[in-house]
Amino acid sequence: MSVFQRLAWLAAHRRRRGSWLAIAVAVVASLVVSRAALAHEIDLSRGDYRPSDQGAEAWIEMSRGDLVRLLPNLDADGDGALSDSEITPSDATSKRLLGLVTATRGDVPCAGSVIQVAPSDAKGGLFGIRFGPCEGESPSIRIAVGSLFTATSFTHRQTGFVHVPGEEKPRDMILHGQDASVEVPVGGAAAPPPPPARGAWDVAKECFTLGVEHIWFGIDHVVFLVGLVLLGGRLRDLAATITAFTVSHSITLAATVLGIVAPSPSLIEPLIALSVAYVGVENFIVKDIAKRWRIAGIFGFIHGFGFAGAVGDKLPTERLPVALATFNLGVEAGQLVLLFAIVPVLTLLRKRDWFERRGVQVLSGAVVVAGLFWFIERVFVA
């Protein structure tokens, strides 16, 4: 019997305990998670700041999910996603961006103009702002981006790169919060002193937090984990399943961030969606969950590419091994917190006959619907 046949059977027997409630939970959960994960994204952008003739330029690349929250006027068809043709400049877009990204030289505001709004790749959008010429006596221009961050989400962070004349490599930093800003030297002026070098501990804290936020807000990964543990089973079997998933996604995350492999997001994102749907379907037919660690390991490789694709090249480069390791640890910590919250609840629910008979099937059906919805969006809509 298919998932949809099972849901129809439940509807036909609506007088039985919990049927209508279970169907409602399945439908609502599917709709909620479907819209929440149009693509696998993280609230992390990339900023490139450089001097120009008596002024400065800011180039910022963001995920399309962040961009549509920031500039809803771009979404011409109102579908909650941005196509390449929708990421174009307009007066409304320029006004919005210049209200969120501002610059001053000393205490004197700098006039700005938006010089580009365009798609950057399959998952991102790029905009550039030129400030100047700026009056004032300060040798540097302060570009404030905090309002831009808080307009997207309270967790937004940016890996910023500041180009300084005479220095071979740009200075990099992680920016976040309402007061985030960067100092850019003006023209041939002497460069401001570099900020204090961040120690390994500072980088570790930032990237660990990014990892935790990534798994908590990566709803497709959360639904995949729920699907894996819905059937319950012995603790050692659950541990083997989660361990296999963890080891495999750690391998592909590291390989991608280090530049060893570079799979296309247009391939990986639909495969992640299919992995979610597959786990939901398997919950209807699997007999021996002791062997489920095998499929969890295989799908873990795919999800690892998804983790890396969301981060891209935005991890700080000055301590990349530390950044990569602690980002991955953050992902694992966030995953464990979710499991410690989910598994006890499912264990209690399984003690009730109605949940064993119908609840698991309905929730598994919701997992299938969500996975298929994401697959269709990522292949035919995004």
Task: Record keyword descriptors for this entry.
alpha+beta, 382 residues, disordered N terminus, 53% helix, 12 helices, four-stranded antiparallel beta sheet, six-stranded mixed beta sheet, 10 strands
Could you explain how this protein is built, in words?
Strand 1 and strand 2 form a beta hairpin. About 40% of the residues are buried. The chain has helices at about 5-10, 20-35, 65-70, 90-100, 145-150, 200-215, 220-230, 235-255, 265-285, 290-310, 320-350, 355-380; strands at about 45-50, 55-65, 100-105, 110, 110-120, 125-130, 140-145, 155-160, 170-175, 180-185. The protein is of the alpha+beta class and about 375 residues long. The protein folds into 2 domains: about 5-35 and about 200-380, no CATH class; about 45-195, no CATH class. Helix 7 (about 220-230) packs antiparallel against helix 12 (about 355-380) and helix 8 (about 235-255) packs parallel to helix 10.
* Category from helices, strands and their pairing: alpha+beta
Which regions are unreliable across 5 or more consecutive residues at pLDDT < 50? 1-24, 30-39
Give the overall shape, derived from the CA principal axes: elongated
Fraction of helical residues: 40-55%
What is the distance, rounded to the nearest whole angstrom, between the alpha carbons of the first and last residues? 32 Å
Radius of gyration over C-alpha positions, nearest whole angstrom: 24 Å
Strand order of the largest sheet: 5-6-2-1-8-9
Quick summary:
The chain is of the alpha+beta class. It contains 12 helices and 10 strands.
